[in-house]
Structure formats: C-alpha cells, structure tokens
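Fic family protein, Celeribacter persicus. Tokens?
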Amino acid sequence: RHLGLDPDSYPAKPREQGVAEMMVDVYSSFAEPLTHETLYRWHRMLLSHDRRLETIGAYRQHAEAMQIVSGRLDRPTIHFEAPPSERIMPEMERYADWFNKTGPGGAEPLPALTRAGLSHLYFESIHPFEDGNGRLGRALAEKSLAQNIGQPTLISLAFTIEKERKGYYDQLEQHQKTLDVTDWLVWFAEVVLKAQQATLDRVGFFISKAHFYDRHRDQLNERQAKAIARMFREGPGGFKGGLSADNYLKITGTSRATGTRDLQDLVEKGALSRTGERRHTRYWLILSDTTTSKVSA
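Tokens:
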C-alpha cells in the first residue's frame, strides 16, 4: 500500500491517501484505454471517505446546476456552469472516445502537450462528478502524457497547478467562453515545464538529504536529529526566514542554554550555517560542501 516504504511518523489524511492510491493506479495502468469504469474507480479512491456526497464512484445525478466556483463561501466567484446531469453520460461517451482516438496509435493522434492540455480542459468543461473533478482532470492529463511518452511522467503536475491556482481558474473561465484554446495550451505547456523542473528539484533535494545523513548520521544527538528532521520535512522550498533559536527550543523542548550549545555544535560540525546576529541569528541546512539550503523551520 505504501510502495514498500514505511510511512512518515505523522498519519496521512484520507484525502492524501486517496490521491496517492489513485496516482499509483494512474501510473500502473497508464497504457490502458480510458473507460467509464476507470474514472469511477479513481473517484472511489479519492472520495470513499466523504460522507457529504450523494454519489461516489459514478457520474453526478443531482438536478441542481453544477457551477464551478472559488473564493469565499458567502461571496463565491462563479467561473462557469457545466452541462446538466442528464447530459453527462453522452458527453462522457464522446470524451472517452476522443481521448482514446487521439492517443498514440489511435485514429487521430495528437502531440503530447496538445492532447494532455485538451484532455484536461475538455474534462473540466463537462465536470461529470459531484466533487473531485480537478484532481481527476489532472490525473487524466498525466495519463495522457504517460501514454504519449510511453512511460509514467512522475512530474509534480498537481502540485504546480495548485501553486498557480489563480491563473488556473482564470484560464478555465476564459476558455469556457471561446473555441480558441491556443492561450490555454500555451499556459498548460508552461505549467508542465514548471512541474518537470519542480520534480527535478525535489529529486535533487532528496539526494542531498541522503548525502547529508551519510555525513552526519552518527554525529547528532536526539534533540539535534529531531530539529534536523523537522527542517527536512519542509521540502526544497522550506519556511521563509531560517531556523531561529526560539524555533529550535519549540521543536526540541530543551532549555535555552542547551539549545545554544546544540546549535553551535551543529555549525561546527558543518551541518548548519549561521547568518545574522543576536535575535536576528538564523540557521540553514548545509546540503553539500558548497551549498547552503534555505530549508528552515
């Protein structure tokens, strides 16, 4: 279930587990044709924990209009209105047929980025499920890319779109009103490139993390190890501002005198670098002999 790895010390939330389970399925079955059952299965993986929904593992059936909104609950921004529920099955029949025909070896193959971008926009325009359409649409884009290149992409597409959330909604709203999707495809291609770079950065970060522990594994006391692990948990981006002495005390629960000695020891061992003076002093992980990482807590 966890790909043979031990999970982190903090428990995964049902939403996170659902996304992980779905993406394993996306990558392991990327070459298979798209079917309604594929989408139903992914939807169950994502939302089996959600008791608010009327329909899980099937297309929406409610009579109310399906509006795609963002922002505050009391003042939502309506981006567009999807087709009514009674039109969903014929729309999705056409969608699945288009998806399979435009893949490699299909009757009407499309270039990789064009097909992936259109597959996402087309799916979001139908919005066939009661909830989870954004996550499913991103999974379809990854399935499309994987089919075109012949292997799973393993890029941070969902993470990157989430960071570009405002631009994403602006693009969706704009391209529900026009048949010219050129700007959408340009935007989507740029996001894919950013996702690729984000993945490379993350892989590099984990390699650097492994090298860090190779150098310092037997040099850290329990408090230091706890603080270092907390800093690494933030990933490549980390928190802004650096690790302060007060941060260290909160993480470890130790006294100020002991914390000061621990931090000085980490600097002397080459695990952390120090910037600033007095209350502005901050500490940063040193991930290589020449690089200081802005990964902090």
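The first strand starts at residue 67 and ends at 72.
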